[in-house]
Design goal:
The complex is a heterodimer.
Chain A (H helix, E strand, L loop, with lengths): L6 H6 L2 H26 L14 H8 L7 E3 L5 H6 L4 H8 L33 H15 L5 E6 L6 H12 L4 E7 L2 E2 L2 E2 H4 L16 E5 L3 H16 L5 E6 L18 H9 L1 H11 L5 H24 L17
Parallel strand pairs in A: 1-2, 2-3, 3-7, 6-7
Antiparallel strand pairs in A: 4-5
Chain B lengths: L3 E3 H15 L3 E5 L25 H4 L4 E3 L4 H13 L3 E8 L7 H8 L2 H4 L9 E6 L14 H5 L5 E3 L4 H13 L4 E6 L6 E3 L13 E4 L4 E5 L3 H14 L4 E5 L2 E3 L3 H11 L2 E5 L7 H12 L9 E4 L9 H7 L3 H13 L3
Parallel strand pairs in B: 2-3, 2-4, 4-5, 5-7, 6-7, 10-11, 10-13, 13-14
Antiparallel strand pairs in B: 1-8, 6-12, 9-11
Helix pairs in contact in B: 1-7, 3-4, 8-12, 9-10
The chains are: A alpha/beta, B alpha/beta.
Chain lengths: ~325, ~325
Amino acid sequence: MTGTLPTTVTQELGPDALLTAYRTMRTVREFEERVHKEFAGGDIPGFVHLYAGEEASAAGVCMHLDDRDAIASTHRGHGHCIAKGVDVGGMMAEIYGKATGSCKGKGGSMHIADLSKGMLGANGIVGGGPPLICGRALAAKQQGSGGVAVAFFGDGASNQGTTLESLNLASIWNLPAIFVAENNGYAETTSSTWSVATDDIADRAAAFGMPGVIVDGFDFFAVHEAAGEAVARAREGGGPTLIEVKFTRYFGHFEGDQQLYRGDEVAHARENLDCLKRFRTRVTEAGQLTNEQLDGVDTEVAEFIDQAVTEAKAAPKPGPDQLLTDVYVAY
Amino acid sequence: MARSITYREAINEALEQEMERDPRVIVMGEDNAGGEGSPGEMDAWGGVLGVTKGLYGKFPGRVMDTPISESAFIGAAIGAATGGLRPVAELMFIDFMGVCFDQIFNQAAKFRYMFGGKAVTPVVIRTMWGAGLRAAAQHSQSLLPVFTHIPGLKVAAPSNAYDAKGLMISAIRDDDPVIFAEHKLLYDTAAEVPQESYTIPFGEANIVREGSDVTIVAIGRMVGMAAQAADELAGSGIQAEIIDPRTTSPLDTDTILESVENTGRLVVVDESNPRCSLACDIGAMVAQEAFGSLRAPIRMVTGPHTPVPFSDALEDLFIPDAAKIAGAVKKAVDYGG
């Protein structure tokens, strides 16, 4: 599964871009580890699904995107939000159900969105995002903006009719869409080796007349390269791509999951495959960044997330008047 | 100069005028042009009942045939609406919402609230509803109560060609998701419809006929049935007031309540199945808000609690008609007397 990539790929990213990539992944990791801890302490309400372990996917894809582009996410959406530039303080406040949250406390972890950033929302419905992304890609095409749209979805959603229909529609309409199947091995407790009829989700691309690629999701550079090709093809009018990103999630399906269905893959992945560790090894050995630079990012990010938590805890909850607002633009 | 066109032509004209006015308006649906990828002519159908016929040639690239893949293209219309377009998507029969309901009620309807007021989703989903075409159980339902139930959606159900045009133009200009329910038995009915563009505001009922003895609230095709009943009742000296809400969400409760306060009696006519129906909803609202004005129990005239049958002998029994409405009115008027 380990990708071997030409060194030219690393060379294409200068030190600033590499630091940005690392900061994004580190921010997601710190965010998720902290939410895990705070949830265990009983301070966070509702259902929370953590993205730790999968950071290279969001970061590797979203580095190619700009303000013209839109993404749709999943119930495991914090990483996609951060990588697409959603305000991290607002996200944390949203998870706490506070009035200062990204969605005024009305959405929560499963519905964090910021349309001004092209982030169409985490989504509580498995397979909810791909049709919407066809629409965003259609809008970009009609408007001639050069924009692309990316649907992140999991191995579970890869079996949903909405996803399969969207692959077909994107292909026949030749849409600037990218479908990123994040295969973390489990749909809740059910293994993708059992639930997905093909060997790989990427195999399904052939059925819809589009390129399908498999990448090692622990390798930022592998994701970055595959996404770069797909985004470039989409922007040039070459149509959609299906990218399967394979990795393992570090936590349970949701917080509170005892994970009795799992083997010992998490310990192995954290030790040997982890995207942050591999990134660090690669860029320091190539002499592109120093350990001191990366340690500096770690410290900054830890302080940043700590501040976000402190502010979220201190923020007010939405007032009663907020119950009835924001249902319609006008009614 | 008076000009009479059909309900079908009125909707087509509304679409054409709005597409002319606003380049963000696009039309998509199964066979909306008709013929995509086929060896013969494009625009072969203009939708299964010809409502979008002729738009394909007038607006290149903006009238799109879709595969029979409702979740994908209804979802795409919704997504495109968040991205700056104003799509009008056709869900051929309202019965087919079962295959794409998630995109409508969990996605489009909830974006604005879930996202703290930051989403705008100006999509119109046109769909054909109602019984009477011998189309049987999966092509004949009402289901308006299902959509009306959902916060975040608006629901329009025009009863005549004039309203169809004005409501469609309002729907396209509306920034919220709209379910635009076109009754399949009204497409060939004609009315005077101005050539120029006009809007009919949502949430503003039409008092179709004034009367002092009973209020009949009727929706869609049932407005015409109620008018027939009112003609018959007039012969018996009963003056019925008919109110057509035109949109069920928002609902013009004020007009209904004012009327019941004058007449003291309410008959609600809705071809939906009876449980949790618009008839129940409007009846309950009046019972709660105008109980003191009522001189008789509220009567509901609806389809029965069955699927819509195929055989004409049964379907005609399913659908409320003028006789049933008149019977309900007489019960209300005779109550206590």
